[in-house]
Specification:
3 strands; three-stranded parallel β-sheet; alpha/beta
């Protein structure tokens, strides 16, 4: 959106958590298994936390799975010719680096958060923050929450002097 011609200059800060900017190999692996066996592997259902009626068919992977495959037309269009970022927007990229899920911890090159590799999350020129949590924990980890909250509350058009620190997360609550 920010890179497109219709951009309205209405984004001041963009905070990404576990965002697969360059796709995820997990969907690619599951997509191949679905095409070969007409069934979604059980390890994939567990990795993405989905069970129930749609857990064995193509509905689980669907169009989004194809779009999130590294190198897809969707990702090429989304990222443009390069990972250029707007100088008008302040960015934060938050990534998990842990995976204890037996079904996925060995499928992806490390470091990864059980669903997305660190390389896929990275964007040149964007402050990178890592936390020792998996993908599903990024939404409720207290340290991640503190960083997001502090970033949103920071004064000014940037992040108000909150600096990149990959070893100790910023905390406004301590």
């Amino acid at each position: 959106y920010i890179q497109q011609p219709g951009y309205q200059h209405d984004v001041r800060r963009l905070i990404m958590r576990g965002t697969p900017n360059h796709g995820t190999e997990l969907y690619h692996i599951a997509w191949k298994a679905l095409k070969e066996t007409n069934s979604v592997p059980g390890w994939f259902r567990q990795a993405v936390g989905v069970t129930g009626i749609i857990s064995s068919g193509p509905e689980l992977i669907g169009i989004a799975g194809g779009q999130m495959t590294p190198g897809s037309k969707f990702l090429k269009a989304l990222n443009g010719p390069s990972d250029t970022i707007s100088s008008e927007v302040s960015y934060r990229n938050i990534a998990g680096t842990e995976c204890t899920n037996f079904h996925t911890q060995y499928l992806l090159p490390k470091p990864h958060d059980c669903l997305v590799t660190r390389g896929s999350q990275s964007l040149a020129g964007v402050d990178q923050y890592t936390f020792p949590v998996d993908h599903h924990q990024l939404h409720d980890d207290p340290a991640v929450y503190n960083l997001v909250k502090g970033s949103l509350l920071a004064a000014g058009s940037d992040f108000g002097g909150v600096q990149n620190n990959e070893t100790e997360p910023f905390s406004i609550l301590s």
